[in-house]
Every structure is written in C-alpha cells, then in structure tokens.
C-alpha cells in the first residue's frame, strides 16, 4: 500500500463500535474511586464526545447526565468545593447536550448587533450597566449572542472574560486596521469570499490577543454565559 493509498483510507466507525466505546468510557467514570480518577476519566470521555459527537446518542441509554449531575451536587455539598472538578463535569454535560437552567427567574439574554464602529456604542452602554450593577458583564447574562462585530464583542466578554476597557482597545484597533477599507476591494471581497472586510487580518489579531480556544471550553467556568 502506497502512502497516497493510506491517506485515502477513511476509518469507518460502526454504531456497534461507537456504542461499545461510549459505554466503556461511561462505565470507567462510574467505577472511579477518587475525585482525581473521576476528573481524568471524565476529561477522556469529553474528548471522545468532542471528536465523536454521534456517541452522544448512547449517553442517554447509559444515563450519563443524571450521574454527572449527582457528582456535581455531591461536590457542591463539600466544605471546600473543587471548582476545577466542577468545570470538568460542566464541560462533559455540555457535550452531552445538557442545558443548564437559568440562575435566576427567567432568561437574561444579551444580543449585540453588528455594524462596524457602532460596536463602541454597545461597549459604552455595557460599561454603564456594569457601573450601575457593580458586576462584570459575564455575570449578568445567561446567554450572549451577536451578529458580525457584535459576535466578536460577546465572545470577548463572555467566552474570554475580557474587560470592557480591553474590549474597547481591541475594537478601536479593528477600526484602524479592518474597518477602514477601500470600497472597491470590499465589494470584490464580498463577491469572492462573502466578506466585505479583511477577515484574515481580523482573525489573526484576535488570535494574537486571546489565543486559540474552543467555545465549549467556556463551560469549564461556571460563571461563563452560553
């Protein structure tokens, strides 16, 4: 078999194999006798579900979610709560499609529109809310969503917990490097890549400031909104 033939081989995972592997990992979690062992095995299960999302079908049969909720309740009852362990449980719950109930009465939703430099208006409005309430934005909402640049703001505030001052600094950098673009180039880019602005530079700068992180990892922090 040549190297090219090896590269073309696609690994096929049958439902039976998927079910057996999922059950094996869940049984391993349930058999763990210490918090450290549980944490390690739950992380292994989370990594598996991340790369094999179809395995989530079998988690219901094995009653994974009720068991993880039991572990979390048990941990919260301790005099000293292991927040890192709680985060590991929360991540696995997210990958198992469990939706946490809102922390208060009703759902607190933040939605930010796009529109280039209008994002600074949203940032200033949120700063005023923080001043009035005395809490950071990420603690005030259950869900955060946005369109275009609004999505960038909510990702920075909710997923990465960037302060509003730093968020404004980053946003002003966008205004001088991304939003200021020749109209002809913008229209050409819109036709070829469905994006008016230079998204490559946009993404490169965000990575340099905040690094690479999957949004599912935000569930490791109990304070992070969805």
TrEMBL record:
InterPro entries in the record: Acyl_Trfase/lysoPLipase, PNPLA_dom
UniProt-recorded Gene Ontology molecular function terms: calcium-independent phospholipase A2 activity
Domain of life of the native organism: Eukaryota
GO cellular component, one term: membrane
GO biological process, one term: arachidonate metabolic process
Keywords assigned: Hydrolase, Lipid degradation, Lipid metabolism
PROSITE patterns assigned: PNPLA
Motif placement: GXSXG: 146-150
Chain positions of motif GXGXXG: 114-119
Pfam families per the UniProt record, alphabetical: Patatin (PF01734)
Membrane-spanning segments: none
Domain PNPLA as annotated: residue spans: 110-226
Protein name per Swiss-Prot or TrEMBL: PNPLA domain-containing protein
